C-alpha cells in the first residue's frame, strides 16, 4: 500500500513505516502530521488517482526530527574585476515517519467486528 502526497511544492511516494524529509513544517518532535493533498493511492489491487486530489484518503505520521541539511556553498566570481562573494546556506527540514495510510471514510468498521452478516 502506498500513496503520493504533495507538500512543500514537491511530491513524495510514501508507504507505512517510511521516514522521509520534507520542507520545514511547524511542530515539535512527536507531534502528529496529517497530509491532506493526496494525489494517488494504491492498496495493491486498485489504484485511485485524484483529479487533482483525493478527499477520502487519510495519511497520518509523526515528526521524528527537525534539522538542517548539509551546507551548500554559494560562490560568486567575476574574472578580472576583483569580485568574489562566498556564502553558505543550510536548508531546514522536517523528518516524518508515516504511521497509517488508509481510506478514511471508505474502510468500513463492520468488516472488522463481523456485524455485517
From TrEMBL:
The keyword rRNA-binding applies. It comes from the Bacteria. GO terms for cellular component: cytoplasm; ribonucleoprotein complex; ribosome. Keywords: Ribonucleoprotein, Ribosomal protein, RNA-binding, rRNA-binding. It holds the Pfam family Ribosomal_L21p. One of its GO terms (biological process) is translation. GO terms for molecular function: rRNA binding; structural constituent of ribosome. The keyword Transmembrane does not apply. This protein binds to 23S rRNA in the presence of protein L20. NCBIfam families: L21 (TIGR00061). Part of the 50S ribosomal subunit. Contacts protein L20. Belongs to the bacterial ribosomal protein bL21 family. This is Large ribosomal subunit protein bL21.
